[in-house]
């Protein structure tokens, strides 16, 4: 795909088809966006599938602050290597690969040197809605191709279909990281709040880790799904009796919801020395009665995706346990419809764009 200046044989930027939001709250539309030339340590990826994350909607609608437009969302990318730079050693043409929520970091701060690039002190470079080190905007996976440094590219094992693998690059690692960090496993009682794009992967992964898993959902309408995905128990949070019955039950509660919760109520479900970990990011501030923490020496925490190494570990874990996302594959011309359905909780459990339709 690389284009060259015929006079100098210097690689030039190439434009590729994409779907972009031209402005905040505007419907996404078909367009083209620039991709940089393949550098020495870059891989050109032919994108096959791109997941639709709730984060895409937040950012395309300025829910988390002012965005960079036109915006091509998408940080759940699965595809195949189409070209490699001269210095690439990790991948070859034809390899199955993925890209998650960031495509670069400073590489020199304490966190980067410790292999925790997601917490880069200077800020990891987002796959979209950000600026790269060259000062140019980054564009995400709702497109046909992307160029990424090999060090920020993941290998997708053969045991996972590419369409089911795409959501693992955000939803999978967003749940895997806190579950592993807070030692979910045999003998531990884990609750997943919300059974959506994030939560359904939390249930699958926590079950595979060996924990006793409970789903806490607003109603019981997804109970059958929750049990099928690996939950041992399912409770409706709209019923006040749930909080009385389950008080002090869980070693770990992971909240995946992107709306403000009554944190004190959910902390009451946590055992002494247990933790309530938030991976959902509401647009509005939340409040907390600190006695909810003091009583029981409980921890209120947050977690954000994972490092490149941990994301690769998650992909290998999912392949070994036969885990993929529950998906609905759609053509690109249904992206705007899919956004509205996500907001209405009308998807089980992740939309994935077939990028051949862009």
TrEMBL record:
Its EC number is 1.1.1.2. PROSITE patterns: ADH_ZINC. It catalyses: a primary alcohol + NADP(+) = an aldehyde + NADPH + H(+). InterPro entries: ADH-like_C, ADH-like_N, ADH_Zn_CS, CAD-like, ER, GroES-like_sf, NAD(P)-bd_dom_sf. It comes from the Bacteria. Keywords: Metal-binding, Oxidoreductase, Zinc. It holds the Pfam family ADH_N. Its cofactor is Zn(2+). It is an enzyme of class 1 (oxidoreductase). SMART domains: PKS_ER. Residues 23-353 form the Enoyl reductase (ER) domain. Belongs to the zinc-containing alcohol dehydrogenase family. This is alcohol dehydrogenase (NADP(+)). It comes from Streptomyces gulbargensis.
């Amino acid at each position: 795909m690389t284009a060259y200046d015929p006079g100098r044989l210097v690689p030039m930027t190439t434009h590729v088809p994409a779907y972009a939001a031209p402005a905040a709250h505007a419907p996404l539309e078909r367009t083209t966006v620039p991709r940089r030339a393949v550098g020495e340590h870059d891989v050109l990826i032919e994108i096959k599938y791109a997941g639709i994350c709730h984060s895409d909607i937040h950012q395309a609608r300025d829910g988390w602050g002012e965005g960079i437009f036109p915006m091509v969302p998408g940080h759940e990318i699965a595809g195949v290597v189409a070209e490699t730079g001269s210095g690439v050693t990790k991948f070859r043409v034809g390899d199955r690969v993925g890209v998650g929520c960031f495509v670069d970091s400073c590489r020199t701060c304490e966190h980067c040197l410790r292999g925790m690039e997601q917490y880069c002190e200077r800020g990891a470079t987002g796959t979209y809605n950000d600026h790269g080190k060259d000062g140019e905007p980054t564009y995400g996976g709702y497109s046909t191709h992307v160029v990424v440094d090999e060090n920020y590219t993941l290998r997708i094992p053969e045991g996972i279909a590419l369409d089911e693998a795409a959501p693992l690059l955000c939803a999978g690692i967003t749940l895997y990281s806190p579950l592993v960090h807070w030692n979910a496993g045999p003998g531990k009682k884990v609750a997943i709040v919300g059974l959506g794009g994030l939560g359904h992967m939390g249930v699958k992964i926590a079950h595979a880790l060996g924990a006793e898993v409970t789903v806490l959902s607003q109603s019981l309408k997804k109970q059958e799904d929750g049990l099928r995905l690996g939950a041992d128990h399912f409770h409706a949070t709209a019923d006040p009796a749930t909080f009385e019955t389950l008080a002090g039950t869980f070693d770990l509660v992971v909240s995946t919801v992107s709306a403000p919760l009554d944190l004190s109520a959910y902390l009451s479900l946590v055992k002494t020395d247990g933790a309530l970990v938030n991976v959902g990011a509401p647009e509005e501030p939340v409040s907390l009665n600190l006695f909810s923490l003091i009583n029981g020496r409980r921890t209120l925490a947050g977690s954000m995706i994972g490092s490149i190494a941990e994301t690769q570990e998650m992909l290998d874990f999912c392949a070994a346990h036969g885990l993929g996302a529950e998906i609905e594959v759609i053509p690109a011309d249904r992206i705007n419809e899919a956004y509205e359905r996500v907001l209405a909780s009308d998807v089980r459990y992740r939309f994935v764009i077939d990028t051949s339709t862009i």
